[in-house]
Amino acid sequence: MVTKEQALSIVEASIAERDSELLKEIKILYSQDNESAWCFYYQSRAYLEAGDSSQQMVGQGPMIVDKETGQLIELGSYYSIKKAMQSYLRYKATDQMMSFSEFLKSER
């Protein structure tokens, strides 16, 4: 079972792999979890600290970490955290013969 702290480390490692400087400029925030996954999102520190909307990051979506496998799933801003987590629960209840991405497309 992946703990919340381990899930956060997975998210941090993924962001650092893409852009190590970005990790210094953002704050990763825990959002919620359910029996299947942890969910995080991130926002710029400058925006969170000062509320300056010109510093707000847009386009990034929820980052889901599967509690069983540690698999990271990054979604775009099209998906709200609530919708992403509800969809992931439904996905985990299936035979999972398709990827989560394909599953999301089939729900549209």
The ordered string of helix (H) and strand (E) elements is: HHEEHEEHH
Biggest sheet layout: 4 strands, antiparallel
Distance between the termini: 31 Å
Figure out the total of helices: 5
Strand residue content: 25-35%
How many distinct beta strands? Answer: 4
Low-confidence stretches: none
Backbone structural class: alpha+beta
Helix content: 40-55%
* Rg on CA atoms, Å: 14 Å
Total individual domains: 1
Structural shape: globular
Mean pLDDT: 91
| Lateral strand order in the biggest sheet | 1-2-3-4
Summarize the structure.
The protein has 108 residues and is an alpha+beta fold. The protein has helices at residues 4-18, 20-25, 45-50, 81-92, 100-107, and strands at residues 26-33, 37-44, 60-66, 72-76.
Structure description:
The protein is of the alpha+beta class and 108 residues long. It has one domain. The protein contains 5 helices and 4 strands, in the order H-H-E-E-H-E-E-H-H. The protein has helices at residues 4-18, 20-25, 45-50, 81-92, 100-107, and strands at residues 26-33, 37-44, 60-66, 72-76. A 4-stranded antiparallel β-sheet has the order 1-2-3-4, with helices on both faces. A hairpin with a 3-residue loop joins strand 1 (26-33) and strand 2 (37-44).
Which SSEs are present, and which pair or pack?
Blueprint: H1 4-18, H2 20-25, E1 26-33, E2 37-44, H3 45-50, E3 60-66, E4 72-76, H4 81-92, H5 100-107
Antiparallel strand pairs: 1-2, 2-3, 3-4
Output the keywords.
108 residues, alpha+beta, 26% strand, globular, four-stranded antiparallel sheet
